Inverse folding.
């Protein structure tokens, strides 16, 4: 087999992976800087990472509307990818901003944290851009491996340990299924390019009865379902979120979930739209299960991180409602929702970071008692995040849910939408519960934390703005999301 | 010509506002009482002018609508604030403002030194205002405003001594029972409005229009329903069976209130209303039967209770119920003029009786107070021989008693006799007539008995008041006595405006002025009756005979009273001892209040408690919270799937994969 | 002044922004600023009233694009018509009173409290004014948030339970309405509708089967808010726990959202379903009237009693609205205002004695009339208004409702409902008697002070309105009439055909049905 | 063709053994080895398919998988050590602080 190197290089357009390059370089620079600057204070790393993230963001945004494909069609920089990249970068940026204070407090302020976040983000971006099973897999693993470390980053902490371990084992386990599915698909279609898979499926005589194709597709589905924490592949989520350092839990709930959706969407809507009858009813059930289990279990949680973990499962369920719809409205909803979710969820975690005590002895909602009196601004911002999570207007969370459920209704999935809104109503209870503690219960003890540092303040402002403003004037973002989903 | 008719209700309203808002600051009783009385007097003057204006018109022009402003307009419903000036309303406003004025004057003396003097007069003025609205309103709705307004004032005035629980209870009872009646009234309005509108496109609640459209109504059927509804309203307001029990309790209010509201004016509103809509009532023969029977029964039934009461005001209260029964009976037999006639004469003599009793109580109260006795100042057993202490009061009281007893020559005779005759001779009820007459006649005998029993126990015999107190008994001041004299005079002469044709003919053809005067009001109804019922012709001898019979019955009643309470005062006690059960039953008002408590009030409370504690809290809220609890419980179970063990998570995942693939393969 | 409605709606938000910069300890300033904001809002609403023309169209309309993405286009479309004019004025009128009512009662977190009140005002005004379904929904939900805090933070002993119950109960209903709303819009897009503007949907001929479901979803949300039996149990809890201002606003305005929802949305949008469900709604309304009256009768807590009386009153309103003739709907609309005034006033009154005695149990009182004469007079007037004594506002509304319902096909329900007037007298007067009359036995009550100037100032406007509407309601009715006619026409437009169908069937409708339909024309 | 199915069946069996191993074993290292077995089963599938299909994509994929598996192993073993440091155990049952 002869390879025309020149021809190969001709297909390479570095602009396609410029954001990834910027981020990786910045990550490596940070690694080096961290080694050579003997400072206990790591705040400068925050700003440097932020610089890289913003740089990557600009680089990604500049590609808007160009839709360039490269590396023999295994990577693409289309609007869909860019939109998701921006979501990842937002998550990463916010995660970086809220990490410093937390890590300082927990005595694990190792500088490697920031490069790892950036690497994970790079992996996510690759997932969103990947148009080949291989690039998707690579991105996914880059992300996952970084996250395993991040989850267990607090080495001295048993819970963090355990979180990393569980995430690692289960993550690798699910990777096995994903890969097996990919292998089967490859076997049926003879290619790993997503577009080629689609055309190959289209040319099949009877794709609907091809067992190998179907099984492969569904195995891939389980792999992604794990990443987005959909039932019954969600079991890792609560434990990992609870054990992982809070900022990393925040990051994991927003970025990787979005990345999972990015790849999941591209794979299924580009490669397997022909087989929609095969996967949509399974996905319907998964969506319902995910929403319901997430919400019901969250109702009875006292640990706020765990509660938010279950809530994040539920949110994956809502997003899956849009996926089941598999139409422009639903997918627009997913994109919008993932972005809003990054803001509101990381925002909520940021408050947890501030309210928590060293070592997080219990991390329970009771810790929030009296916050409304002692720190009214923090409580108000937290309420905003919680209302957004609950999907109350006029927050971004509401607009997101509106589009997700609208998508389902548009396709005629009325019951799915009804189950969705009922779940949403039930979820209000546990969000309100936090507010009950913040405003309606007296505080039992003094709050232990010190002043609120600049990075985390910035994160809070950005997150609050991101949760509220798109709720009031969502048009612009919605239109971007709409353009993004046109291409898949 | 009636341009200033709006002044009639306005004066009392102004009086109410001044006393109500500023009375507390004014403090001076003379000023307060003066303002209130003047306001009513002003109304009286305008009423007189209106009356004179009306009778100066030719008889067929004596129905005038005066519109003030448009009140409620919604779709095809319209009700104005507008007044209807016709003979009936004119008569009523004269009674209301005239007697009202007298009672205001009386009250200045009677209420002297009472806490909340201003409040009393404010309420009284408000009452006059409402009553005037009731009688002047040119449409059902405005009438209803007055109707409820007087009920409200009655509530306020009965509960005037609000510190007494019994007063509060009585006020509430009066209001609620009246509300039951109002419910009927409302339904009547709805039915009439709907029926005429729906079927004949006459959307109206205005009396003149209703009268003009009355011929569109069928006989019986829906009209029976409508009139029964209205009649329910009348039974509430005019204290008829079954809604009469509030009136005796209403005696908790100050005595002038009893005189004005619970004897002379408000309680006659039901009668007035039936008269006002006579043209509709006559089109419902079944209703007329009901009205007549209820009236006759009430007259008789209340009279029996009156015979055994010892509280002077209670006797009068039951007497009022009984007399109202007469009026209703008159309406029920189509003798509308007679009913209104009795309404008028009753207003005179019953007001006089109540005010007289008030004077007695006032005097008794003062005397007992002086000797620090806690004896009941209203209990006739504590009275006796008062005529020598209060001669003027006694005299006026006696005149009024004779009037109510139906002794010829006094006002009560003419009106009551007319009713009894019509009950016997009316063309509507056929064989029922004899019974109606008989009940009325027996009630008349009982009336004479208990009224004279009252007079004898109070004014005759030995003085039974606590020893030493008698020297404090005295005649009332002039402000109290003068109204008594005026009313006593009216009790005598008031009857001569309606001398029956039979007697009039004897005296050279004195016309029945009242009948002529009221003719335009009842022409519609009378014409219908004339066309639809066969008037039986009875001989003059029969009429004379019945008249004589009723007089004899009255005299028998008086004689028995005299025998029992003057000649042989120990007999009543023996009588009660012989028939303890009967006495107890009568004394306790046949246990009707207890029956109502048992059958209606208590079950309602129990039901309320059940609905609240049993249904609302347990069932409905239980369901609501139950859903929440189930969801929470489910959450509590689901969370235990999360064992914390890696292998169980892996199992779950593998299970998921197997199920998904399995579903795919085997679906 | 083309943006006057927006100015009015968002003026409270401006007040909120101002409050944010006032230190939380200067409570007097905070209260004053909040009060002045609400007064200013009221002042702004006056030109709206005076400039309002008595026509059926929406006026002062502001209509600009807001969101456009995917199949959806939402507009910032607000306007006022006869249905909303008085509700809006009522809102701006009640708010200063509400702020004043807890002037001294709320000492804790004054800043947040005032912010909540002002946010609530914006939410309520927006919900009344919104002419875009989506915008309406936003405001509808936004109202929940401040009310939740008002009950939950400044409420009584059981406040958390009451607040959460209030929030989730309402939320369940409104989320289902959201689903219906989206569904309706998507139906509309097939018929060429391009945005959420309400007017587009009136002419949308939804097929009857779909109407049924959509109506049910809307009706559920509104019924919870009204609240109609048997969805009313959140109300007594919420009312009992809420601070005075919360109860006042809840009773005076928030409950009206439900009935308003029926008039503005559920009925005209789904005429056939309206016809179909009229008997059910009527049954529930009548049960509500009677049932709530019985339950109110035996309450031991004054506030709960008033809360249940609200359920009964709103039952009347619903009956009037669903009689679908001019009298009934006018009565219903007027009664909404009346209930706002009277029941609002009742809650203020309960607040007064609660503030003095810190109890609301009827048995703790008795004989207050002696000690508090001014209070007695005011309480009496409001009580009478609540039991619809003629001359007060309550009478006009109730009478029109009942006569309207009697004319319609709901005749028999009306007769039962009318008996509620008796029961109302029973429970209100009994309560009044037990609280105000009798001997002043409890020593704690002997030191009670009569109302102070502030409290009198709060009550006087309400008392005046009670009489003004009672004596001269026509100016109020006239402004609403054209819009009411329009609503009736919309809600009935299909009904004649529906009746024609039912008449064709062997089980013939009663003979008066077709006549009822022709009735407006006859007039 | 028979050849291919043999390979595929073998790899499926290997994959299943790996899966079951993860499910039934408690020693974290053994569990991880089972996961590696699963990955290698996939590798075998890819290689067989690549050979069968006559294109190299599958084999390239295998290289990536092996690389990633190596990285994963590095990270994983490091975490096992950290865990062992804290808990003196390498039993998965001991990693159950967090539950419910």
């Amino acid at each position: 087999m002869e390879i025309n190197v020149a021809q190969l290089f001709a297909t390479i357009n570095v602009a396609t992976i410029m954001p990834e390059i910027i981020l990786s370089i910045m990550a490596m620079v940070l690694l080096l800087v961290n080694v050579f600057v003997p400072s206990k204070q790591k705040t400068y790393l925050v700003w440097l990472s932020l610089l890289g993230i913003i740089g990557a963001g600009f680089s990604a945004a500049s590609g808007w509307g160009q839709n360039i494909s490269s590396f023999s069609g295994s990577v693409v920089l289309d609007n869909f990818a860019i939109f998701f990249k921006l979501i990842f970068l937002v998550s990463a940026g916010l995660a970086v901003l809220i990490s410093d204070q937390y890590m300082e407090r927990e005595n694990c302020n190792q500088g490697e944290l920031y490069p790892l976040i950036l690497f994970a983000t790079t992996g996510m971006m690759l997932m969103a851009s990947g148009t080949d099973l291989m690039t998707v897999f690579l991105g996914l693993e880059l992300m996952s491996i970084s996250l395993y470390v991040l989850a267990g980053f607090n080495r001295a902490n048993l819970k963090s340990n355990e979180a990393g371990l569980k995430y690692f084992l289960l993550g690798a386990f699910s990777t096995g299924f994903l890969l097996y599915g990919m292998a089967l698909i490859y076997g049926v279609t003879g290619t790993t390019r997503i577009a080629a898979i689609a055309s190959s499926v289209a040319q099949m005589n009877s794709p609907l009865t091809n067992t190998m194709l179907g099984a492969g597709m569904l195995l891939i589905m389980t792999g992604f379902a794990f990443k987005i924490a959909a039932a019954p592949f969600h079991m890792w989520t609560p434990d990992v979120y609870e054990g992982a350092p809070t900022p990393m839990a925040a990051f994991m709930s927003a970025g990787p979930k979005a990345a999972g959706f990015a790849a999941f969407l591209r794979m299924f809507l580009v490669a397997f739209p022909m087989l929609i009858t095969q996967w949509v009813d399974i996905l319907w059930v998964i969506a319902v299960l995910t929403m319901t289990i997430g919400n019901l279990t969250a109702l009875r949680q006292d640990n706020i991180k765990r509660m938010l973990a279950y809530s994040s499962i539920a949110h994956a369920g809502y997003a899956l409602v849009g996926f089941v719809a598999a139409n422009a409205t639903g997918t627009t909803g997913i994109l919008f929702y993932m972005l809003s979710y990054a803001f509101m969820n990381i925002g909520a975690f940021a408050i947890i970071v501030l309210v928590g005590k060293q070592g997080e002895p219990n991390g329970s909602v009771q810790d929030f008692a009296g916050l409304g009196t002692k720190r009214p601004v923090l409580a108000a911002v937290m309420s905003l995040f919680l209302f957004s999570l609950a999907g109350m207007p006029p927050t971004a969370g509401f607009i997101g849910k509106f589009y997700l459920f609208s998508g389902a209704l548009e396709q005629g999935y009325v019951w799915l939408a009804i189950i969705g809104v009922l779940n949403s109503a039930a979820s209000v209870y546990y969000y309100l519960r936090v507010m009950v503690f913040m405003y309606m219960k007296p505080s039992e003890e003094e709050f232990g934390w010190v002043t609120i540092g600049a990075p985390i303040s910035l994160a809070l402002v950005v997150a609050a703005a991101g949760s509220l403003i798109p709720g009031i004037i969502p048009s612009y973002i919605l239109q971007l999301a709409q353009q993004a989903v046109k291409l898949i | 010509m009636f341009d200033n008719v709006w002044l009639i209700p306005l004066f009392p309203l102004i009086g109410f506002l001044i006393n109500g808002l500023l009375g507390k600051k004014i403090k001076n009783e003379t000023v307060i009482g003066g303002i209130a009385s003047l306001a009513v007097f002003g109304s009286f003057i305008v009423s007189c002018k209106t009356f004179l204006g009306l009778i100066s018109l030719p008889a067929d022009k004596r129905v005038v609508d005066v519109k003030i402003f448009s009140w409620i307009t919604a779709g095809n419903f319209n009700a104005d604030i507008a007044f209807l000036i016709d003979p009936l309303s004119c008569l009523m406003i004269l009674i209301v403002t005239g007697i009202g004025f007298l009672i205001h004057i009386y009250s200045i003396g009677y209420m002297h030194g009472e806490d909340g003097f201003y409040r009393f007069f404010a309420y009284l003025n408000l009452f006059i205002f409402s009553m005037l609205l009731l009688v002047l309103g040119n449409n059902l709705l405005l009438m209803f405003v007055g109707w409820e307004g007087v009920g409200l004032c009655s509530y306020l005035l009965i509960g005037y001594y609000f510190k007494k629980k019994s007063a509060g209870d009585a006020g509430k009872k009066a209001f609620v029972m009246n509300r039951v009646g109002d419910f009927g009234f409302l339904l009547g309005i709805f039915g009439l409005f709907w029926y005429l509108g729906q079927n004949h496109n006459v959307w109206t609640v205005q009396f003149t229009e209703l009268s003009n459209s009355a011929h569109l109504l069928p006989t019986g059927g829906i009209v029976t329903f409508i009139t029964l509804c209205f009649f329910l309203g009348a039974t509430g307001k005019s204290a008829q069976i079954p809604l009469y029990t509030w009136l005796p309790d209403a005696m908790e209010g100050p005595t002038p209130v009893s005189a004005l509201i619970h004897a002379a004016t408000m309680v006659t509103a039901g009668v007035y209303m039936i008269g006002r809509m006579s043209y509709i009532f006559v089109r419902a023969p079944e209703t007329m039967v009901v009205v007549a029977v209820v009236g006759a029964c009430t007259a008789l039934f209340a009279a029996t209770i009156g015979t055994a009461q010892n509280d002077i005001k209670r006797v009068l209260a039951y007497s009022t119920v009984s007399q109202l029964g007469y009026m209703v009976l008159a309406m029920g037999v189509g003798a509308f003029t007679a009913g209104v006639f009795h309404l008028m004469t009753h207003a005179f003599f019953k007001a006089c009786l109540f005010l007289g009793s008030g004077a007695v109580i006032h005097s008794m109260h003062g005397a007992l107070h002086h000797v620090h006795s806690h004896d009941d100042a209203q209990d006739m057993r504590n009275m006796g021989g008062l005529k020598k202490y209060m001669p003027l009061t006694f005299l006026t009281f006696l005149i009024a008693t004779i009037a109510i007893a139906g002794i010829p020559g006094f006002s009560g005779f003419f009106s009551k006799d007319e009713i009894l005759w019509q009950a016997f001779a009316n063309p509507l009820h056929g064989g029922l007539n004899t019974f109606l007459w008989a009940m009325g006649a027996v009630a008349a005998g009982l009336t004479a008995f208990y009224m004279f029993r009252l007079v004898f126990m109070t004014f005759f015999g030995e003085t039974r008041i606590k020893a030493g107190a008698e020297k404090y008994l005295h005649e009332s001041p002039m402000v109290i006595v003068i109204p008594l004299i005026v009313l006593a005079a009216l009790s005598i002469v008031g009857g001569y405006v309606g001398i029956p044709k039979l007697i009039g003919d004897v005296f050279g053809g004195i016309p029945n002025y009242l009948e002529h005067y009221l003719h335009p009001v009842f022409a519609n109804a009378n014409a219908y009756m004339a066309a639809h019922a066969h008037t039986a012709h009875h001989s003059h001898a029969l009429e004379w005979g019945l008249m004589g019979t009723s007089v004899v019955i009255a005299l028998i009643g008086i004689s028995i009273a005299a025998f029992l309470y003057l000649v042989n005062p120990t007999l009543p006690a023996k009588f009660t001892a012989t028939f303890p059960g009967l006495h107890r039953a009568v004394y306790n008002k046949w246990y009707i209040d207890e029956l109502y408590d048992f059958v209606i009030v208590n079950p309602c409370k129990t039901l309320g408690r059940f609905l609240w504690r049993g249904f609302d809290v347990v069932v409905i809220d239980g369901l609501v919270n139950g859903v929440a609890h189930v969801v929470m419980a489910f959450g509590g179970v689901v969370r235990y799937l999360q064992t914390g063990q890696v292998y169980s998570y892996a199992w779950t995942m593998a299970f998921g994969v197997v199920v998904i693939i399995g579903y795919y393969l085997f679906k | 002044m083309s943006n006057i409605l927006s100015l009015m709606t968002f003026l409270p938000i401006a007040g909120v922004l101002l409050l944010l910069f006032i230190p939380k300890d200067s409570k007097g300033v905070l209260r004053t600023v909040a009060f002045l904001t609400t007064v200013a809002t009221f002042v702004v609403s006056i030109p709206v009233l005076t400039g309002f023309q008595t026509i059926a169209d929406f006026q002062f309309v502001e209509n600009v694009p807001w969101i456009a993405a995917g199949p959806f286009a939402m507009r910032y479309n607000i306007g006022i018509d006869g249905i909303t004019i008085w509700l809006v004025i009522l809102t701006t009128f009640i708010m200063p009173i509400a702020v004043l009512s807890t002037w001294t009662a709320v000492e804790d977190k004054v800043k947040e409290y005032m912010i909540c009140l002002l946010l609530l005002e914006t939410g309520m005004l927006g919900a009344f004014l919104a002419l875009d379904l989506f915008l309406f929904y936003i405001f509808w939900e936004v109202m929940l948030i401040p009310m939740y805090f008002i009950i939950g933070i400044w409420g009584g002993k059981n406040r958390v339970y009451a607040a959460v119950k209030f929030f989730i109960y309402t939320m369940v209903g409104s989320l289902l309405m959201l689903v219906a709303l989206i569904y309706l819009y998507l139906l509309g897009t097939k018929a060429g509708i391009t945005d959420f503007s309400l007017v587009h949907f009136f002419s949308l001929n939804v097929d009857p089967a779909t109407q049924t479901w959509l109506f049910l979803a809307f009706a559920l949300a509104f019924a919870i808010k009204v609240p109609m039996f048997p969805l009313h149990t959140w109300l007594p809890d919420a009312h009992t726990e809420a601070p005075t201002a919360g109860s006042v606003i809840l009773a005076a305005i928030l409950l009206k959202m439900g009935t308003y929802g029926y008039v503005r949305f559920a009925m005209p949008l789904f005429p056939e379903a309206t016809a179909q469900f009229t008997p059910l709604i009527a049954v529930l309304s009548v049960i509500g009237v009677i049932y709530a009256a019985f339950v109110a009768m035996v309450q031991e807590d004054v506030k709960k009693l008033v809360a249940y009386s609200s359920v009964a009153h709103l039952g009347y309103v619903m009956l009037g609205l669903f009689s679908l003739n001019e009298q009934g709907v006018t009565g219903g609309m007027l009664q909404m205002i009346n209930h706002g005034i009277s029941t609002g006033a009742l809650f203020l009154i309960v607040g007064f004695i609660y503030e003095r005695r810190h109890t609301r149990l009827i048995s703790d009182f008795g004989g207050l009339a002696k000690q508090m004469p001014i209070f007695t007079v005011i309480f009496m007037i409001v009580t009478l208004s609540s039991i619809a004594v003629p001359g007060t506002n309550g009478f006009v509304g109730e009478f029109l409702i009942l006569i309207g319902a009697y004319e319609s096909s709901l005749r028999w329900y009306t007769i039962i409902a009318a008996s509620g007037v008796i029961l109302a007298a029973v429970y209100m007067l009994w309560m009044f008697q037990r609280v105000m009359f009798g001997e002043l036995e409890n020593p704690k009550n002997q030191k009670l002070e009569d109302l102070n100037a502030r409290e009198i100032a709060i009550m006087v406007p309400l008392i005046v309105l009670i009489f003004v509407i009672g004596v001269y309601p026509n100016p109020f009715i006239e402004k609403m009439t054209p819009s009411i006619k329009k609503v009736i026409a919309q809600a009935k437009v299909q009904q004649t055909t529906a009746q024609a169908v039912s008449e064709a069937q062997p089980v013939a409708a009663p003979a008066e049905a077709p006549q009822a339909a022709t009735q407006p024309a006859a007039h | 063709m028979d050849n291919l199915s043999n390979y595929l069946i073998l790899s499926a069996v290997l994959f299943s053994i790996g899966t079951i191993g993860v499910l039934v074993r408690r020693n974290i290292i053994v569990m991880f080895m089972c996961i590696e077995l699963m990955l290698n089963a996939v590798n075998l599938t890819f290689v067989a398919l690549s050979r069968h299909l006559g294109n190299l994509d599958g084999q390239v994929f295998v290289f990536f998988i092996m690389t990633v598996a190596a990285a994963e192993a590095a990270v994983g073993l490091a975490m096992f050590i950290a865990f062992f440091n804290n808990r003196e155990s390498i039993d998965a049952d001991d990693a159950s602080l967090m539950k419910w």
Observations:
- Chain B has a mean pLDDT of 85.
- Strands of chain B lie at 64-74, 77-85.
- Chain B has 26 helices and two strands.
